[in-house]
């Protein structure tokens, strides 16, 4: 999944290891402080009628800092997702040159972001937020985190052989020199900034550059070539992309997923499901689908769900003599199904970028997810393992212990849904209380969550959420450039024209195709950030309900995310299940075909998506 990142098998320098420990601590500490601020603000507002005016500004500032320090830690560990399909098939020499060039480009992007974020902090000194807090408090932590990313990128570059570094430099500088020479010799024939931006994005993506850096570099190419935009605009747009209280639900729900795995809730719930339905035909597969349904209603993060469920059930599938490739394929298909089960992170992101009700999206996603889950369960039973073989994987632990874990887990799900419906708190505030609940359960009820384990959960959550939010920030910088070029307006006119001549059904099919393809090429959040604001307004002009259309987009993106050969989510599932991707391609195509048929039904029967939102007043 990772593109041009750290070299496997070579240890980082001691200085880099020390810096990694520091970024881990800073990212986790800022996330913990954010949790305290949000929970304290809700309690003061609800119990003592004493709202804290500065809490939102502080929470957003802490999130920006935590995101960039977490992204730095992810970069140091080589966790940044990128398209490895093409680069893996290059000759060894070309691949090494591409990796070296990618590492150099990561250094350039992160250093440029750091410099301009720090510069923006200096320029905004003396300005304040709406609550009176210094505005530079947002930009200085962002600049420090980006500077750490630059240092890690430099370490990745320097750990390569000198010959590869030179080859990478020649590649990067050669391309830049070629454009400069072209522009000097024949300026009228030189490619435009938009063309170079798109070409740079395509080439770096194929070359294995991590998604976030490819998006940011594309925006930077336009800034550099166009020449009239100051560099601080780039840093400002990256900060603006994640400086929103709504997005704080992402790190909190990811934290809930890690805490559930550490405090034993995940294992207890899965074992109970195995006890209840594991002996039926295809029981283990039914358990896998059901577990993904339940976990998606708790942690919000698809890869956290895949890790929690797969780490327990893939070994169980091997014990029951199932094909592990087919088990991983079903796990991936179940993750697609769970894309619209609240509190899915991609629903939150789409609601933010397309200005849709997040509560409404949560309600709209339930019945479509139920339809897809029912289809997967039916196929699992029809083609599943015989009950005698499946019984070999049934756990033998205490049923009471399993029921306790299940009841506690359902309590967390109830908290999330009751919180949304009652209006007691926003999605972000509910996610904060869900994290507090998971900590309390692990420490006081199960007594399995030590302080060290909780600290590791905060580090993992800050790193993973930093990875996601860095992609969101980079995609925002590119979306800003696209808006400057009036691309959304052009797309809207084109799509409306097509629909007026051929009907809204063609617009719906084109939208599905775009999200499947781009969801496969890009990380899911990036595809939604770029295309959600483009397509949702057009759908509204054509009379398509935005909540219904939003659910369709998220499902289509999920199919692309787990579709071979490029889908990054499928690579992640294979890594978790320790299965070569070649073993999953045939079964995953069958499952995705089934889900695609479900998607068409959902797309052309709006009542499936809109019944619950209408019933609950959205």
How would you describe the overall organization of this protein?
It is a single chain. Mean pLDDT is 85; it is low at 1-11 and 387-391. The chain has a domain at 14-243. It is 77% helix and 0% strand. It contains 27 helices and no strands. The longest helix has 34 residues, at 14-47. It is mainly α.
Averaged pLDDT, please? 85
Shape estimate:
globular
C-alpha end-to-end distance = 38 Å
What composes the largest sheet?
Answer: none
Helix proportion range: over 70%
Based on CA atoms alone, the radius of gyration comes out at: 24 Å
Unreliable segments (pLDDT under 50, ≥5 consecutive)? Answer: 1-11, 387-391
Series of H and E elements: HHHHHHHHHHHHHHHHHHHHHHHHHHH
Q: Tell me the β content.
A: under 5%
Structure summary, number of beta strands: 0
Number of helices: 27
Q: What's this, in brief?
A:
By secondary structure, the protein is mostly helical. It has helices spanning 14-47, 55-76, 92-123, 136-158, 162-185, 193-206, 211-226, 231-242, 249-263, 265-277, 283-296, 302-319, 324-337, 345-353, 358-364, 366-383, 387-390, 399-422, 427-445, 451-484, 487-502, 504-521, 524-541, 546-561, 568-577, 585-604, 607-615.
What is the element layout, followed by pairings?
Elements: H1 14-47, H2 55-76, H3 92-123, H4 136-158, H5 162-185, H6 193-206, H7 211-226, H8 231-242, H9 249-263, H10 265-277, H11 283-296, H12 302-319, H13 324-337, H14 345-353, H15 358-364, H16 366-383, H17 387-390, H18 399-422, H19 427-445, H20 451-484, H21 487-502, H22 504-521, H23 524-541, H24 546-561, H25 568-577, H26 585-604, H27 607-615
Pfam family, one: DctQ
Transmembrane segments: 18-43, 97-118, 138-158, 165-182, 202-225, 245-266, 286-314, 326-354, 360-383, 403-424, 430-446, 467-485, 505-535, 547-568, 588-612
Membrane topology: Multi-pass membrane protein
């Amino acid at each position: 999944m990772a593109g041009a990142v750290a070299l496997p098998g070579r240890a980082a320098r001691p200085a880099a290891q020390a810096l990694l420990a520091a970024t881990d601590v800073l990212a986790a500490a800022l996330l913990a402080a954010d949790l305290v601020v949000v929970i304290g603000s809700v309690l003061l507002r609800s119990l003592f009628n004493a709202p804290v005016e500065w809490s939102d500004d502080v929470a957003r500032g802490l999130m920006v800092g935590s995101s960039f320090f977490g992204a730095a830690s992810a970069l140091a560990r080589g966790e940044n997702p990128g398209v490895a399909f093409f680069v893996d098939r290059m000759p060894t020499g070309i691949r090494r040159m591409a990796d070296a060039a990618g590492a150099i480009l990561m250094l350039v992007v992160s250093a440029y972001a750091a410099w301009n974020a720090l510069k923006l902090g200096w320029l905004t000194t003396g300005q304040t937020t709406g609550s009176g807090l210094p505005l530079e408090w947002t930009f200085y932590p962002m600049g420090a985190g980006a500077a750490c990313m630059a240092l890690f990128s430099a370490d990745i570059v320097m750990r390569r052989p000198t010959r590869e570094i030179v080859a990478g430099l020649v590649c990067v500088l050669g391309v830049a020199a070629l454009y400069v020479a072209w522009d000097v010799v024949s300026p009228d024939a030189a490619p435009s900034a938009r063309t170079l931006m798109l070409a740079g994005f395509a080439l770096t993506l194929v070359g294995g550059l991590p998604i976030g850096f490819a998006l940011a570099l594309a925006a930077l190419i336009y800034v550099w070539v166009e020449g009239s935009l100051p560099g601080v605009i780039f840093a400002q747009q990256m900060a603006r992309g994640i400086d929103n209280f709504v997005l704080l639900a992402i790190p909190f729900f990811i934290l809930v997923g890690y805490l559930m795995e550490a405090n034993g809730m995940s294992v207890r719930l899965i074992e109970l499901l195995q006890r209840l339905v594991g002996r039926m035909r295809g029981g283990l597969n039914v358990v896998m689908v059901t577990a993904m349904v339940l976990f998606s209603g708790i942690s919000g993060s698809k890869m956290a769900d895949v890790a929690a469920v797969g780490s327990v059930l893939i070994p169980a599938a091997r014990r029951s003599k199932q094909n592990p490739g087919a088990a991983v394929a079903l796990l991936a298909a179940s993750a697609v199904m769970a894309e619209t089960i609240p509190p899915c992170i991609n629903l939150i992101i789409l609601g933010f970028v397309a200005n849709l009700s997040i509560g409404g999206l949560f309600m709209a996603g339930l019945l479509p997810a139920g339809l897809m889950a029912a289809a997967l369960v039916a196929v699992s039973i029809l083609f599943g393992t015989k009950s005698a073989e499946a019984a070999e994987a049934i756990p033998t632990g205490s049923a009471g212990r399993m029921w306790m874990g299940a009841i506690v887990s359902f309590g967390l799900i109830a908290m999330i849904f009751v919180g949304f419906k009652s209006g007691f708190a926003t999605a972000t505030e509910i996610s904060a209380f869900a994290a507090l609940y998971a900590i309390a359960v692990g420490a006081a009820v199960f007594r399995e969550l030590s302080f060290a384990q909780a600290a590791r959960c905060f580090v993992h959550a800050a790193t993973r959420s930093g990875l996601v939010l860095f992609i969101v920030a980079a995609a925002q910088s590119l979306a800003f450039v696209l808006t400057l070029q009036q691309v959304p307006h052009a797309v809207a006119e084109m799509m409306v024209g097509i629909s007026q001549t051929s009907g809204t059904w063609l617009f719906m099919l084109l939208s599905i195709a775009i999200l499947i393809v781009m969801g496969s090429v890009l990380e899911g959040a990036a595809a939604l950030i770029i295309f959600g604001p483009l397509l949702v307004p057009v759908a509204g002009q054509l009379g398509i309900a935005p909540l219904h259309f939003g659910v369709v987009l998220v499902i289509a993106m999920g199919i692309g995310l787990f579709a071979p050969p490029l889908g990054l989510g499928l690579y992640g599932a294979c890594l978790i299940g320790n299965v070569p991707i070649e073993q999953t391609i045939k079964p995953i195509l069958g499952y995705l075909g089934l889900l695609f048929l479900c998607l068409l039904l959902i797309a052309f029967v709006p009542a499936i998506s809109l019944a619950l939102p209408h019933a609950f007043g959205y």
